[in-house]
Amino acid sequence: VGGATSSMSMSPTITTPAMTQAGLILGTAAYMAPEQARGKPLDRRADIWAFGAVLFEMLTGRRAFEGEDVTDTLAAVVRSEPDWSALGADVPARAVKALRVCLRKNPRERGGDIGAIRLALEGAFETTVVEAPPAEPTVEAAPQRILPVVAAAVAATIVLAGVVAWLVWPTAETPTVTRFEVTTPPEAPPRTEFSYSDLAISPDGTRIAYGTGVSGDAARAYVREIDQLEATVIRGSEVAADLFFSPDGERIGFRQVQNGPIRQVSVRGGPTATIASSIRPYAGGASWAPGGDFVVYGSGSGLWRVPATGGTPEQLTGDAAGPIAHRWPDVLPDGRAVLFTETGTSAEDSYISVASLETGEVTRLLPGGSHPRYAASGHILYGANGTLWAVGFDPRRLELTGNPVPVVESIVTKASGAALFDIADNGSLVYVAGAAAEALQRMVWVERTGRSEPVGTVPPGELWTPRLSPDNSRVLVSNAGDAWIYDLADGRSTRLTTDGLTPRYVVWDPTGVRVAYSSTRGGPDNDVWLSPVDGSGAPELLVDGDGGLDVEDWSPDGTVLAAHQHGPQAEDIVTIALDGDTPEVRPFRADE
User: Fold this and answer.
1) SS in 3 state form for 470-503?
2) Are 354 and 365 in contact (CB under 8 A)?
3) CA distance from start to end of the chain
4) Which string of b and e fits 231-247 if b means at least 16 CB within 10 Å?
5) For residues 310 and 294, is the Cβ–Cβ distance under 8 A?
6) What's the CA gap between 215 and 213, in Å, rounded?
7) What are the pLDDT digits (tens) for 336-365?
8) Helix, strand or coil, per DSSP, at residue 543
9) What mean pLDDT value characterizes the chain?
């Protein structure tokens, strides 16, 4: 390597006599992957990292990670980023992208094998815009497309990024790839917060539907015809979330957030019809079967199937022993199976899975991903850490046929696992460009000065509404759908609930002996329950919530709970008096 600071042979190399009597060469520090530097188990993704480190050095004449000694070098590998500015302007963009994939700290984000990196270096995944008359813009096909799936990773500056025509079928003629950005009305921006999946494209690729990031009844669904310049609101879609199209693209299914049922409405607006009203409990996502006769939706207790015209839901998958909820279903084209996400308390115990609609048998396909969607090219698209990935899949044998390949970087991915993208039967892909939400929340101490530090004894998770115990020695928190107590001194944990039906509202009683929480354990609405901290008894129903009650605080004398109550048009602050024979819900202040 001309101009390199020193040769590869002079880089610090680690050996240890602890592994064998003769000693074992563990690696050259400058080319060791972060997981190797930490002493974790290795696979071929460590080789992909080493390849990237060598390629970076060949292109720049300097090492990607340098230090005066082994310790400094390993610290750079684990914590630092390469100096990407060292790559000259003459380095092809595809080489820069491939290098960034090779040198990602998380091995899950590097791709499955070096073959995918070779294809990226050859330009197999890029599209090149060709100058053409304004009336008929065309896009030149990328050369040497070995995989039948390609997409353009567009760094969009607006929140809803365009439609990418995927090459899902090999043809004799050169296929056309188009891409554009969709401008949304300023009064109705797309919703990128909360846990919902708020983006869908019709099966024929002619319409995009998205949910808006405003509050109240204004939070409706919008539809944008691809050949039109403006999006229009869908009348009847008030407080709509988790959008999905009917097979003919003429109707949109959605969950009505305030009272929970899954409904359907014409894309032109109008009266709504209920698909499912009793959801126990809804966890995220729904999919209309290709034949149009039924809908599958996700819940904390498994997947459920319900007739599209309404009826009694039928449970498809049971309560999983490990993962908490089954989310983001996608019924496969033949209607015999459904892809979905098994969501656990961390990315490591979450899986993309497939379930037979005939037997309910569940097969885990891939760890760590979420929100799978089947592409007609014979691939599963899914989100992971803000990147859209593709992996080969045989829908007849329900088996993977290849290794994951990154397709589009920087798509909005929420902590719930919802990735804001969708794909049509004709291969058109729509996605919202942006950063991934923090997949796992971390608990921190925050001082009045603003300085913060992690609470090291509480592991990262899907953490909500942390509450300190009265003696400040423990913290009560909702973690991935269940109530947990963590000891702040030694990190010991107690799981108070195991059904995945606890939302984000948990509070201590003043004595530290019991906790109150809101849960759909008794039905579709949030009721208020009590549980002993030591797990000595079964949960006790305190208040049957009418429309839903979310507890917020407990008075110091133990006689009153504060909560907010979901109403048909607004949310009210209420108190729950506990000093009588029967708990009494009393209004405190309305319309808050």
Assistant:
1) CCCCEEEEEECCEEEEEECCCCCEEECCCCCCCC
2) yes
3) 67
4) bebbebbbbbbbbbbbb
5) no
6) 7
7) 999 999 886 555 568 999 999 988 899 999
8) strand
9) 77
User: C-alpha angle with apex 94: 92 to 97, nearest 5 degrees?
Assistant: 115
* CA 161 from centre of chain: 18
Per-residue pLDDT at 9 exceeds 50: no
Question: Exposed, middle or buried by CB within 10 Å (0-12, 13-18, 19+), for 420?
Answer: buried
Q: 3-class DSSP state for residue 577?
A: strand
Which token pair is 577?
């008096």
For residues 552, 555, 559, 563, the Cα torsion angle rounded to the nearest 10 degrees is: -20
How long, in residues, is the chain?
592
Question: Does residue 346 contact residue 398 with C-beta atoms inside 8 Å?
Answer: no
Reference 343, options 316, 372, 314, 315; nearest CA is 372
Q: Distance (Å, rounded) from C-alpha 49 to C-alpha 211?
A: 39
Element counts in the chain: helices (H) and strands (E): 5, 42
Please say whether the beta carbons of 535 and 496 come within 8 A: yes
Count of CB atoms situated within 10 Å of the CB of 516:
24
User: 175-214 pLDDT, tens per residue?
Assistant: 455 666 776 766 666 666 667 788 999 999 899 998 876 5
Alpha-carbon gap, residue 109 to 122, rounded angstroms: 20
> At which residue do the structure tokens 């991934």 appear?
436
Nearest to 387 by CA among 138, 197, 199, 110: 110
Contact (CB, 8 A) for 243 and 259? no
Cα separation of 514 and 540, whole Å?
11
Q: What is the per-residue burial (b if ≥16 Cβ within 10 Å, else e) of 386-413?
A: bbbbbbbbebeebebebebbbbbbbbbb
Q: Measured between alpha carbons, how far is 91 from 107 in angstroms, rounded to an integer?
A: 25
- Is 60 exceeded by the pLDDT of residue 83? yes
- What's the pLDDT score for residue 420? 87
What is the rounded CA–CA span in Å between residue 528 and residue 544? Answer: 7
Nearest to 421 by CA among 380, 381, 378, 376: 381
Tell me, letter by letter, the H, E, C secondary structure of 116-150: HHHHHHCCCCCCEEECCCCCCCEEECCCCCCCCCC
* 3-state secondary structure at position 196: coil
**What amino acid is encoded at 375 in this protein?**
A
Question: Pick from 124, 120, 96, 104: which is nearest to 48 by CA?
Answer: 104
pLDDT-derived band of residue 273, with 50, 70 and 90 as boundaries?
very high
CB 162 within 8 A of CB 180: yes
| Percent above pLDDT 70 for the chain | 73
For residue 52, the surrounding DSSP H or E stretch is helix 45-60
Least trusted range by pLDDT, from 142-156, 394-408, 410-424:
142-156
pLDDT at 131 over 50: no
Residue type, 502: T
